[in-house]
UniProtKB/TrEMBL annotation:
Biological process (GO), any one: regulation of translational initiation
InterPro entries in the cross-refs: ARM-type_fold (IPR016024), CSN8_PSD8_EIF3K (IPR033464), eIF3k (IPR009374), PCI_dom (IPR000717), Transl_init_fac_sub12_N_euk (IPR016020), WH-like_DNA-bd_sf (IPR036388), WH_DNA-bd_sf (IPR036390)
Record's protein name: Eukaryotic translation initiation factor 3 subunit K
Highest taxon in the source lineage: Eukaryota
GO molecular function terms noted in the UniProt entry: ribosome binding; RNA binding; translation initiation factor activity
UniProt-listed Pfam families: CSN8_PSD8_EIF3K (PF10075)
Subcellular location: Cytoplasm
Family per record: Belongs to the eIF-3 subunit K family.
Quaternary structure, from the entry: Component of the eukaryotic translation initiation factor 3 (eIF-3) complex.
Described purpose of this protein according to its UniProt entry: Component of the eukaryotic translation initiation factor 3 (eIF-3) complex, which is involved in protein synthesis of a specialized repertoire of mRNAs and, together with other initiation factors, stimulates binding of mRNA and methionyl-tRNAi to the 40S ribosome. The eIF-3 complex specifically targets and initiates translation of a subset of mRNAs involved in cell proliferation.
SUPFAM superfamilies linked to this entry: ARM repeat (SSF48371), Winged helix' DNA-binding domain (SSF46785)
Length: 233
């Protein structure tokens, strides 16, 4: 399960910034930017700390760096399905992203996030593969594509017990061999000779028997009979 709000990797000095008066100190920007760089390199996300950095940018717009803003949004995107991307986006001054290169970058990231949230996975990978700007935006985020694929696989496992390998290729943005390796070694699924991938039973994808019970007492039954008799009388 994703823990991008309060990750165990968070160092003590960041805890002090988030929970104390340091979160209003412009000098904390340097430490939070360095911490973001660490997140990008080590494949974990601290959305709480990153939002604190965005709030400091709001208070100190002269310190804002476009690349840091886009890295925060990309890291938030790796937490889908969750509201983290929207929470970060709403902390960016609209006037700052109204035009210029940052506007173009944020618009592209919003498109990518919308595709993920809308389960348009094939379109997402096509956008990533066919756009140089996208390649630049995710370049600093170590393991970005692997993180996205892991989240997609988790959602698939919640909804399906069986799915075709060809469909998974489209959803994961991989060729046949890479998809087979991903689902067998990474997810622990089984690929059959017929090209159907079997997903182990779990609490989400298991078919559950639904029981509908209605309690009708004698008084209710007698009223129905009496009304029926009155209508025919």
């Amino acid at each position: 399960m994703l823990n991008g709000e309060d990750p165990p990797e968070r160092p003590e000095y960041v805890v002090n910034i988030i929970n104390g008066l340091e979160r209003y100190n412009p000098e904390a920007v340097v430490n939070l930017e360095a911490y973001l760089q660490e997140q990008c390199e080590q494949k974990y996300t601290d959305c709480n700390a990153n939002r604190t950095l965005l709030k400091l940018y709001q208070l100190n717009p002269d310190r804002m760096k476009d690349e840091v803003v886009t890295n925060i949004l990309v890291k938030a995107m790796t937490q889908f399905p969750s509201p983290q991307f929207s929470l970060a986006l709403h902390l960016i001054n609209p006037s700052v992203i109204a035009q210029g290169e940052l506007h173009e970058a944020v618009t592209k990231l919003r498109t990518l996030n919308s595709q993920l949230e809308g389960a348009q996975y094939a379109r997402f990978w096509n956008t990533i593969d066919g756009d140089d700007l996208c390649a630049d935006l995710i370049a600093d985020i170590s393991g970005f594509e692997d993180l996205i694929r892991a989240n997609i696989a988790n959602l698939i496992a919640q909804a399906f017990r069986e799915v075709s390998l060809s469909q998974l290729e489209s959803w994961l943005g991989l060729n046949t061999d890479a998809t087979t390796k991903f689902v067998t070694e990474g997810a622990g699924w089984t690929v059959g000779d017929n090209g159907v991938v079997t997903i182990p039973k779990n609490a989400e994808n298991e078919a559950k028997k639904s029981e509908i019970r209605e309690d009708v007492n004698i008084d209710m039954f007698s009223r129905v009979l009496r009304r029926s008799w009155e209508e025919t009388a």
